[in-house]
């Protein structure tokens, strides 16, 4: 990153053209959802609870004073999902939000610890219809010629690009493929098939996705979908999708799980995996579970990484090039 005398670190990294592009993207998003009667909301960036997903690490801080328990542990949100779901349970109807989120240990040419998400939830809409709406929005924002979006199952993309059936492959087969692709086997969690599937997805499959078109991959293994409904036609997969463009993941969506008891069991299973990996154990969000138990609407939701989309639109090499003040200048 260039912090030379010609470009001192107090100056913004992104140029004025990129800042104007971001403002135009935000305006287009707001117009898109206003036309569809989707309400813009605002929720906290600081929370008492955090995600239990072993693959996501939260920023932790402490609050003192104000009558709170001394040294009360708090977290910067990794997504506005849990707060937005509480709004949905309270009867908000379809909602969206543009917000900053935070994740530990994510820094590189395509990652910044603080980044911008567009997250939205559509009441009464299945995840297949939400994929189509996401395609409409992203196509509107890109303003460039792309082939028609394609919709492929997780099983189909693995069979096509990794020559492997991810739903029937044995643990030994996955470990062998991962070794061949260059993965050094971890010292713990070696019996976790999803660890190897994630690695093969990133190395073998993802680089091939979204070439001159939007590619939606759906029906992920149920074991990778703690917040999504299991598909009725096949209990091995869940109603989850991801969106890819030119080998980059842009969005992650679900047909949302509404069963509080099942959600608690999934959170506890993730806590067990975190304990096995000696990871911190954030508090399970009891307010989210209470909201689900109170009555959660049938809905689907998706989170879209706006920084990556803007990077693609501005033809910049790194994510830092489209941020006013990336991590090294924050």
Structure characterization notes:
This protein is an alpha+beta fold. It has one domain (16-329): BirA Bifunctional Protein, domain 2 (2-Layer Sandwich), CATH 3.30.930.10. The chain has helices at residues 16-35, 81-89, 127-142, 154-161, 171-180, 193-205, 260-276, 286-295, 306-314; strands spanning 39-40, 46-47, 60-63, 72-76, 95-102, 114-123, 147-153, 213-218, 240-245, 248-255, 299-305. The strands form 2 sheets. It has an 8-stranded mixed beta sheet with strand order 1-5-6-11-10-9-8-7, sandwiched between helices. The relative contact order is 0.18. The model is unreliable at 1-5 (pLDDT under 50).
Write the layout of secondary structure elements.
Blueprint: H1 16-35, E1 39-40, E2 46-47, E3 60-63, E4 72-76, H2 81-89, E5 95-102, E6 114-123, H3 127-142, E7 147-153, H4 154-161, H5 171-180, H6 193-205, E8 213-218, E9 240-245, E10 248-255, H7 260-276, H8 286-295, E11 299-305, H9 306-314
Helix pairs in contact: 2-8, 5-6, 7-8
Low-confidence stretches: 1-5
Overall average residue pLDDT: 93
Task: Specify the structural class.
Answer: alpha+beta
What is the top-level CATH class?
Alpha Beta
């Amino acid at each position: 990153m260039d912090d030379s005398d010609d470009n001192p670190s107090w100056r913004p990294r992104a140029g004025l053209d990129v800042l104007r592009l971001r403002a135009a993207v935000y305006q287009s998003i707001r117009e898109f959802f206003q036309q569809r009667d989707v309400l813009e909301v605002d929720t906290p960036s600081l929370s008492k609870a955090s995600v239990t997903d072993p693959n996501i690490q939260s920023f932790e801080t402490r609050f003192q004073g104000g009558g709170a328990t001394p040294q009360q542990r708090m977290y910067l949100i990794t997504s506005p999902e849990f707060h937005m779901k509480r709004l949905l349970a309270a009867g908000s109807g379809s909602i969206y939000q543009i917000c900053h989120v935070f994740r530990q240990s994510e820094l590189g040419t395509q990652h910044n610890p603080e980044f911008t998400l567009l997250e939205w939830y559509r009441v009464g809409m299945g995840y297949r219809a939400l994929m189509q709406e996401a395609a409409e929005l992203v196509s509107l924002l890109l303003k460039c010629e792309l082939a028609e979006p394609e919709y492929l199952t997780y099983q189909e993309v693995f069979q096509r690009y990794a020559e492997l059936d991810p739903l029937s492959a044995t643990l030994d087969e996955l470990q062998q493929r991962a070794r061949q692709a260059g993965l050094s086997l971890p010292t713990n969690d070696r019996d976790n098939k999803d660890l190897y599937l994630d690695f093969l997805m990133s190395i073998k499959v993802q680089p091939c996705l979204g070439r001159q078109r939007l590619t939606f991959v759906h029906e992920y293994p149920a074991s990778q979908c703690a917040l999504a409904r299991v598909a009725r036609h096949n209990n091995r997969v869940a109603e989850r999708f991801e969106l890819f463009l030119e080998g980059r993941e842009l969005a992650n969506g679900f047909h949302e799980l509404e069963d509080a008891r099942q959600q608690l069991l999934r959170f506890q299973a993730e806590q067990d995996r975190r304990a096995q990996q000696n990871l911190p154990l954030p508090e399970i969000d009891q307010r989210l579970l209470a909201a689900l138990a109170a009555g959660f609407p049938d809905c689907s939701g998706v989170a879209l990484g706006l920084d990556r989309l803007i990077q693609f639109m501005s033809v910049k090499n790194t994510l830092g090039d489209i941020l006013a003040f990336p991590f090294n200048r924050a």
